[in-house]
Amino acid sequence: EKAGYEHFMIKEINEQPKALADTLFPRIHDGKIDLTDAGFSDDMIEGIRKIYIVACGTASYAAQVGKYVIERLARVSVEVDAGSEFRYRNPVLEPDMLVIVISQSGETADTIAALREAKKRGLKVIAITNVVGSTLSREADAVFYTRAGMEIAVASTKAYITQLLALYMIAMEVGRIKGKLADEEYARLLKELERVPELSKEPMEKKKDLQKLASQRYMDQHAFYIGRGLDYAVAMEGTMKIKEVSYIHAEAFSAGELKHGTIALIEKNTLVVALATQADLLEKMMSNIKEVKARGGYVFAIVQERDAATVADQVDQVFTIPNVEDLFAPMLSVIPLQMLGYYAAVSKGCDVDKPRNLAKSVTVE
Ligand code: F6R
Known about the structure:
The longest helix is centred in the middle third of the chain and has 20 residues, at 158-177. The chain is α/β, with parallel strands linked by helices. Helix 4 (57-74) runs antiparallel to helix 11. Helix 13 links the parallel strand 11 and strand 12 (317-321). The strands form three sheets. A five-stranded parallel β-sheet has the order 4-3-5-6-7, with helices on both faces. A five-stranded parallel β-sheet has the order 9-8-10-11-12, sandwiched between helices. Helix content is 44%, strand content 17%. The site of fructose -6-phosphate has 15 residues, from helix 4 and helix 11. Fructose -6-phosphate is lined by residues 56-59, 103-105, 108, 111, 155-156, 240, 244, 361-362.
């Protein structure tokens, strides 16, 4: 039941700190992430040359974060594909490739079809899923269970965040076993990762800022979500959240790409949600923000606390997430985006938990 919340979506957003903790802590033993139950042995990891991640919708946006993080920490190249594309394009698959499928429900037809295709072609498939006993969990060679608990709202929130976490854990383990991540750096990252469940409580405390934005006229027509690198991957998920529950059209852009055409759509008061959580990209992001401001856009920026003062006078509104290792920022920055979608839907009077045209799991192709 809703435990005092108005909708399942906001209840599940608030359950994210627990979902993260439940997925992370039972898998840490003696200062190491233990993924043996999910099919990752040292031998198996040493044999991986390339990773293919296949998923649909929100899970595929989690995969986009995963690609970035795995490539960064493990130096293994990662390809991401939608289930419905993978199957019909005769993908180039090689024997030393690992296929990871991600699905909250474990019942998405396109993702199941992709798993079957990969297995038919002789590849090992690991499923990241939230549902014990689901089709994917039964058919995969091994399963990484996210422990988000049952997700009822159609818009995925706590499942997505645990999918991110699962991918971070995989990236760190592959990086460690392959010798790409030195012991010290691994230990430092793990310590930081252990802080994330607690830190993820903070954005919920600032709901007023998001409610305010959600009820303003900037939300009328359409919005752009921009970011670079990891922030771009999170922007994709952010636009999904606002589109599906509030029916506001939103598009995610890598900030550097905006000027190659789409900036033509920025006019006075167009809402631009700018994610700028990455220190090495902050300066570049600021110049993209200036381009948007110069055309009258209304910029809502999401940054780490440490950068709030730098950014404040160059944007219209700032939302800060707690300071964290940059790599892990997606698990915090997605929360205000989920809340923005939620509050926009509430202020428009939409049926938040059951948006039009959508079902919780898509079992048709
Ligand atoms: C969006 C959403 C969908 C699902 C997609 C895949 O909030 O929930 O995009 O992510 O239909 O579903 P699963 O993860 O069950 O395979």
